Structure to design on (542 residues):
């Protein structure tokens, strides 16, 4: 199948066409530099995103602590991951890097806090 | 009245970096005044990732980036006062602030660094006709409600403006369960990063409508019930025959940032009509001796990394001013021509001994394959090839020590675009 993508590596924003009908030999056109090709192939084979959100925190000096997946997770798991984050509550104190949900959606990636909450 | 060497107005990324740099330059009598109940400024609500690639060589979220700079301030024991709103700065450098704890206070400062950031342009700033109903928010207000307070402003959303904040909020509202029906952009292009168009809109099939605007807002029982959008012609005037109604309960406005320069105005600081920030020299000093400005209050930056860099320089220069007094005598003015909309700083001191000077600028239109050139009295002294320049991406040219020496002998510095195609 031929897919249209916009490269995100630089302000040029090349319009890429990716033909992945042959999985062994994915064809990329429209890129100006090699980074465009690498990006296009990763987008059609295994696209990944860092997911960010926030969870309520009990007994804290802030109402919520922001969180992120410690590394990118498969794009198709974004909304499952968000559901798991939404069902989670934190209790102060929370420190940046603390694990808020471990192994989110069986991705092997933890959701970690990105802000501190002091206990009050 | 109390007396301090350096007062920093605003504890966001610029204020934190300026304070740290002033301390590291040997200054110990510093206080940061912050109106919110926490340091970090706007970064606290920017919980998405993508910050700090230049500064830390890794992708951080806004709160993480802020925390690193806050830690530098804590480590140095630099004083800061939260919940303290500065209400006046005078030309003789008296800072007046109010706080619940201290009431009305005045500080006489030797140097002031204004790091007040921006406000969002409100609905009144673009005069959208229609109902005065609940459900209309600036994108940043919605961001604060969702990310800090945990409150969802609506369920079906239209966003006007495709700058980065609008794009980021399209994704955030989608993540939190709302339906974003469209992002509407007046211009034929987005001023947001490609990365955000791809990862905030395309990932979730949110339509981006260029050359369109909101022409009416309708309401039922005091709440937004729909917005009417229409295409615009080449003079950006709506073509009413193209009008279409989109059902929604929320309209988010991401229609520009305005440097918050009321305080600079009270102090009679000269402002630039192009940047809406102060006119500064290469030490980030305004035309009022001892008042410095940096960060988004000076001109809107795309990346916080550049804010930190600029503010670090301003903090260092403020400390030097406290120590040595004003040494400025003569200036070389800078300007942008042929598509370069502005250059900051607007003038370069002939006296100082800094090793390098960063010229920051924005272009008025997108150009491909263009030469960005610096001319000193008409003679080309710097030439940089750019595959593309766009209004949404700030350009920086760093003059090295040898060039700085030459510039000081000169009369006028000009940054210009040569060649290139639109």
């Amino acid at each position: 199948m031929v897919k249209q993508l916009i490269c995100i590596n630089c302000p040029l924003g090349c319009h890429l066409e990716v033909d992945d009908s042959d999985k062994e030999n994915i064809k990329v056109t429209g890129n100006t530099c090699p980074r465009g090709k690498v990006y296009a192939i990763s987008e059609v084979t295994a696209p990944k995103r860092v997911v960010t959100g926030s969870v309520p925190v009990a007994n804290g000096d802030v109402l919520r602590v922001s969180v992120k997946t410690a590394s990118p997770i498969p794009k198709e798991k974004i909304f499952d991951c968000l559901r798991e984050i939404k069902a989670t509550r934190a209790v102060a104190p929370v420190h940046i890097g603390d694990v808020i949900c471990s192994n989110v959606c069986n991705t092997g990636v933890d959701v970690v806090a990105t802000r501190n909450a002091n206990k009050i | 009245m109390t007396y301090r060497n350096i007062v920093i107005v605003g504890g966001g990324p610029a204020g934190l970096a300026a304070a740290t740099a002033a301390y590291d330059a040997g200054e110990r009598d510093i206080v940061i005044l912050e109106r919110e109940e926490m340091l970090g400024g706007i970064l606290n609500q920017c919980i998405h990732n993508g910050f700090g690639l230049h500064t830390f060589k890794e992708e951080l979220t806004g709160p993480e980036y802020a925390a690193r700079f806050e830690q530098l301030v804590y480590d140095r024991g630099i004083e800061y006062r939260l919940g303290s709103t500065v209400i006046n700065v005078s030309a003789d450098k008296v800072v007046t602030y109010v706080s619940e704890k201290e009431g009305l206070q005045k500080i006489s400062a030797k140097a002031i660094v204004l790091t007040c950031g921006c406000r969002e342009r409100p609905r009144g700033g673009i005069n959208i006709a229609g109902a005065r109903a609940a459900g209309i928010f600036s994108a940043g207000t919605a961001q604060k409600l969702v990310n800090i307070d945990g409150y969802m402003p609506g369920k079906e959303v239209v966003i006007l403006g495709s700058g980065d904040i609008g794009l980021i909020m399209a994704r955030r509202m989608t993540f939190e369960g709302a339906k974003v029906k469209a992002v509407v952009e007046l211009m034929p292009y987005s001023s947001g990063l490609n990365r955000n168009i791809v990862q905030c809109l395309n990932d979730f099939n949110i339509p981006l409508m260029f050359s369109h605007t909101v022409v009416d807002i309708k309401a039922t029982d005091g709440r937004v019930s729909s917005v009417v959008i229409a295409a615009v012609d080449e003079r950006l005037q709506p073509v009413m025959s193209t009008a279409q109604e989109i059902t929604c309960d929320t309209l988010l406005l991401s229609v520009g940032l305005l440097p918050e320069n009321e305080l600079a105005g009270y102090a009679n600081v000269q402002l630039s009509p192009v940047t809406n920030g102060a006119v500064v020299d290469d030490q980030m000093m305004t035309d009022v001796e001892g008042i410095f400005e940096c960060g988004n209050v000076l001109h809107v930056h795309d990346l916080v990394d550049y804010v930190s860099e600029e503010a670090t320089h301003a903090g260092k220069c403020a400390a030097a001013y406290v120590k040595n007094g004003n040494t400025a005598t003569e200036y070389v003015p800078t300007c942008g021509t042929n598509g370069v909309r502005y250059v900051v700083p607007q003038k370069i001191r002939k006296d100082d001994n800094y090793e390098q000077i960063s010229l920051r600028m924005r272009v008025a239109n997108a150009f491909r394959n263009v030469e960005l050139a610096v001319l000193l009295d008409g003679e080309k002294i710097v030439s940089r090839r750019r595959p593309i320049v766009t209004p949404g991406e700030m350009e920086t040219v760093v003059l090295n020590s040898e060039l700085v020496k030459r510039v000081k002998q000169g009369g006028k510095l000009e940054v210009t675009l040569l060649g290139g195609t639109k």
Q: What stands out?
A: The longest strand of chain A covers residues 52-58. Residues 52-113 of chain A form a domain with the CPE0013-like fold fold (CATH 3.10.530.10). Chain A touches chain B at residues 5-8, 10-13, 32, 49-54, 56, 62-64, 66, 68, 75, 78, 82, 96, 114-116 (CB under 8 Å). The helical segments of chain A are 34-45, 78-86.
